[in-house]
Specification:
Blueprint: H1 3-22, H2 28-43, E1 47-51, E2 63-68, E3 71-80, E4 83-92, H3 100-157, H4 164-193, E5 201-204, H5 205-222, E6 226-230, E7 236-239, H6 241-257, E8 264-272, E9 275-282, H7 316-326, E10 330-334, E11 342-349
Parallel strand pairs: 6-8
Antiparallel strand pairs: 1-4, 2-3, 3-4, 5-7, 8-9, 9-11, 10-11
Helix pairs in contact: 1-2, 1-3, 2-3, 3-4, 5-6, 6-7
Length: 352
């Protein structure tokens, strides 16, 4: 058998060992280690390394062997859907020549590496989703149980005529709180099942926004938080008045929940480039940069771990995003970090 034939068989065996080893890997580091071993067995370089790219780096094109005098360097990129996942760098202490078979074997090793890395990514994503689901269920149970505990406690106060008024108020307050929690869960369930339909018509957004913040102003005032609105001229959009009110009520409640005594909630509307733009901002506790990308996720709480825990299931902003999207609009959140307040900006297409 010719040397090229022996090299091909040897390379295939190396790849087979690599593929067999991938079935037991648990991390990207292990994938790279096994991949590098396969590459080394195929090319037998004097030195071999793995180079990991910066996040979001473009995938490099396959680089031919670079001969610099008496040495040769070869780069084998590992790519997936145009993204560079890493590179194998090979160094030879002599001029080296490579055949098409060599490059084909290297390409197969790189492709197997990329596939294994993709599978690990997906596995990690599913694990994280399962963990978040477990945490969400535990939090939902806690939130739904809390009002019941208060209600049950209030029934004992009813035994005393002196405490009846206080007990009735407690039952009413906590009953309404639990009703809101259940309503949020039902809304998301209906959205997921496609059963929640919007009734669109052309309407003025300004009175809807104004009414919501007028309604919350007494509660805000009782907590020492001021609410001011700066409304533009009539802003006509196609929308469902009930769901739009829900959007702004959730945003208003969110801003109030995270504001302290002496705080301020500011609301503006404007028309810009064919869109109605509404901004709801506050100078409350703010959102840290690492949590900012997730504020619209379901069951997400904007509070910092280890600090005060705020009431609610963390569904309000998720519902906001769902309803805004159904209106053909967008919503975004901005904050300079913890203690720096937050701003939510919504845009809806203006009706023709």
């Amino acid at each position: 058998m010719s040397k090229s034939g022996e090299a091909l068989i040897s390379g295939i065996r190396s790849l087979q060992r690599f593929v067999d080893a991938l079935s037991a890997v648990q991390s990207a580091e292990q994938v790279y280690a096994f991949g590098l071993t396969a590459i080394q067995e195929i090319f037998k370089p004097n030195a071999a390394f793995v180079l990991l790219p910066d996040s979001g780096a473009e995938a490099p094109r396959p680089t031919p062997a670079h001969n610099a005098g008496s040495v040769t360097d070869l780069t084998i990129p590992v790519t997936l859907d145009g993204e560079c996942l890493g590179q194998f760098l090979l160094h030879f202490n002599k001029p080296a020549g490579f055949t098409d078979t060599d490059f084909a074997l290297a390409g197969l090793a790189a492709a197997q590496t990329a596939q294994a890395l993709a599978e690990i990514r997906e596995r990690d994503r599913l694990k994280q989703a399962a963990r978040r689901k477990d945490e969400s269920i535990a939090m939902a149970v806690h939130e739904l149980r809390s009002p019941l505990t208060a209600i049950i406690g209030a029934t004992f106060l009813l035994r005393s005529d002196k405490e009846k008024e206080k007990a009735i108020e407690m039952i009413n307050r906590n009953g309404r709180a639990q009703a809101r929690l259940i309503d949020d869960l039902l809304k998301l369930s209906q959205l997921d099942a496609g059963r929640l339909k919007l009734q669109f018509k052309v309407l003025d957004l300004v009175p809807i926004v104004t009414q919501v913040f007028d309604d919350i102003r007494p509660t805000a005032s009782a907590h020492g938080v001021s609410v001011d609105t700066q409304m533009a001229e009539p802003v006509m959009i196609r929308g469902d008045a009930r769901r739009l009110s829900q959007i702004f009520w959730n945003l208003a409640s969110n801003s109030l929940r995270f504001s302290s005594t002496g705080g301020r909630i500011h609301v503006t509307t404007a028309k810009e480039d064919g869109f109605a733009t509404i901004c709801v901002s506050d100078d409350g506790c703010g959102i840290s940069k690492d949590r900012l990308p997730f504020v619209f996720d379901r069951f997400e709480q904007a509070h910092e771990p280890g600090t005060q825990r705020y009431d609610g299931l963390g569904l309000g902003l998720a519902i906001v995003k769902e309803f805004v999207t159904m209106h053909g609009g967008t919503v975004s959140a901005a904050s300079d970090g913890s203690g720096q307040g937050a701003a939510f900006t919504l845009q809806f297409p203006i009706a023709d």
